[in-house]
Amino acid sequence: MRAQKLDRVLTCTRIGDPDGAYPIFDATGSKLAPGRWNTASSPMLYAAEHYSTAMLEKLVRGSGQMPPGQHFITITIPNGVSYEVVTPDSLSGWDDISCSASRGHGEAWQQERRSLLLIVPSVVARTERNVLLNPDHPEFARVTASLHEPVRWDARLFR
């Protein structure tokens, strides 16, 4: 895959606990609890293209339980930064429960600093995408985040 340049401003959403051990706009959590696309040695920020997808991803990660005090931020990514896209057809096994294909791909992407963004499919919402940010990439300083706001969970999600 070859890095391309973003031709528009992109926004995405990230959910976290502003009073937790790590700030919402921080990749430390991905070192301690790697996700589908990273290992402990390849930290990255996980975000979603849409607020609703961020909520679904958070619910899946928390096994349906939500810790109190969750907030969201909107991340703004300016045009002109580099990105790569993984589609379901471009990476065989990306959605496998072992995460070996996706973790290997994400780790190489992060460590090689091939682009600021890696746009990947969501397992939980198959037609949606997640946006991974490489905090070690030189373009990361161009990214901004909003002030955090509370997530309003509908109680019907937890029945």
Task: Walk me through this protein's architecture.
The chain is 18% helix and 24% strand. The chain is built from 3 helices and 9 strands, in the order ββαβαββαββββ. It is globular, with a radius of gyration of 15 Å. The chain has a single domain (4-152), classed as Alpha-Beta Complex (Diphtheria Toxin, domain 1), CATH 3.90.175. The model has no long low-confidence stretch (mean pLDDT 93). By secondary structure, it is α+β, with helices and mostly antiparallel strands. A hairpin with a 7-residue loop joins strand 6 and strand 7 (129-133).
Set out the fold topology.
Elements: E1 4-5, E2 10-16, H1 28-32, E3 45-48, H2 51-61, E4 71-77, E5 82-85, H3 100-112, E6 117-121, E7 129-133, E8 144-145, E9 149-150
Parallel strand pairs: 5-6
Antiparallel strand pairs: 1-5, 2-4, 3-7, 4-8, 4-9, 6-7
